[in-house]
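lol forgot to send this yesterday, sorry. struct tokens for the thing we talked abt
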């Protein structure tokens, strides 16, 4: 059973009755669900994942103290802790007072501030440019079982995708770094006899190519240990997972280097064609440095457009 399904089943069997019977006066203010860090929140948990943090549990999100005070918060935490210690063959761990790091009773504002840097879903331009995509993914993944107040749903919707100008800024910066690392520096490092540096250049190219792929899919890039799995599920460029893995895992013998350099150009060509199809560039060819500046020129906000092209990366 997947962790999200286990969590919801536990909530339906015990959490929901507990809230309805013991806290009917608080129900209009509560949201319940499971999202945040952890493979189960992305649906990526498996048998290996069960060695830690896999248990029946969910989060009860509270609004500010003017609506639900600390006394009621404490009572909710006590009631949550008294729920059955095991469910469907899985044991629960204890939680710290006022909620644990992943389950229990949490303040909505505190959760989103810790996760995404905002209590209410509003981010400044500098925040949008610098907050990691994986943090925004954790703020918007998983599942809401109920949200009577609507506050959690509103915040998650506000954080669900990059503003278009920010997406283009991040895209332009990653394209430029793809050009520098893959199209320019990989073979030059080998010409200098620096095989280690060449592999670092390939790694940078792959990292930035992955960023571009997620941005073109309008999805947040996940934490590195799940990124290839997530990429294989994307509508666009899911087939590029295999060649990108090859670039990372192969060596740099003269024959392999020629193959890798050709593959880098092939990938650049695929990305360039997609940029043109979306109207983000009209330039021919696959010279990613030129395309990066062309994408940047499509940003409508002059303040954002005139920032350094690497401002978001």
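and heres what i got for the seq, position by position
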């Amino acid at each position: 059973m997947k962790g999200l399904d286990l969590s919801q089943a536990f909530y339906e069997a015990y959490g929901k009755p507990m809230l309805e019977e013991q806290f009917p006066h608080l129900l209009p203010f509560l949201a319940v669900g499971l999202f945040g860090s952890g493979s189960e929140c992305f649906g990526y948990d498996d048998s290996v994942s069960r060695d830690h943090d896999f248990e029946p549990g969910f989060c009860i999100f509270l609004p500010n103290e003017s609506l639900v005070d600390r006394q009621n918060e404490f009572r909710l935490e006590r009631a949550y802790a008294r729920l059955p210690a095991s469910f469907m063959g899985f044991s629960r761990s204890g939680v710290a007072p006022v909620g644990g790091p992943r389950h229990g009773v949490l303040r909505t504002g505190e959760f989103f501030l810790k996760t995404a840097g905002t209590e209410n879903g509003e981010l400044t331009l500098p925040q949008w440019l610098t907050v990691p995509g994986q943090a925004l993914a954790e703020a918007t993944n998983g599942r809401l079982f109920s949200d009577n107040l609507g506050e959690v749903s509103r915040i998650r919707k506000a954080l669900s995708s990059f503003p278009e100008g920010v997406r283009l800024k991040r895209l332009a910066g990653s394209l430029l770094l793809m050009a520098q690392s893959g199209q320019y520096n990989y073979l030059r490092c080998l010409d200098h006899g620096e095989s280690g540096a060449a592999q670092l250049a390939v790694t940078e190219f792959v990292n930035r190519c992955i960023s571009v792929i997620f941005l073109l899919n309008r999805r947040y890039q996940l934490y590195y240990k799940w990124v290839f799995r997530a990429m294989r599920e994307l509508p666009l460029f899911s087939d590029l997972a295999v060649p990108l893995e090859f670039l990372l895992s192969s060596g740099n013998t003269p024959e392999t280097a020629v193959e890798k350099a050709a593959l880098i150009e092939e990938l650049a060509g695929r990305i360039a064609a997609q940029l043109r199809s979306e109207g983000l560039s009209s330039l021919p060819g696959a010279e990613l440095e030129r395309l990066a500046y062309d994408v940047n020129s499509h940003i409508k906000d002059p303040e954002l457009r005139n920032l350094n092209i690497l401002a978001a990366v």
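Residues 3-124+141-158 form one domain. anyway ping me if u want another try
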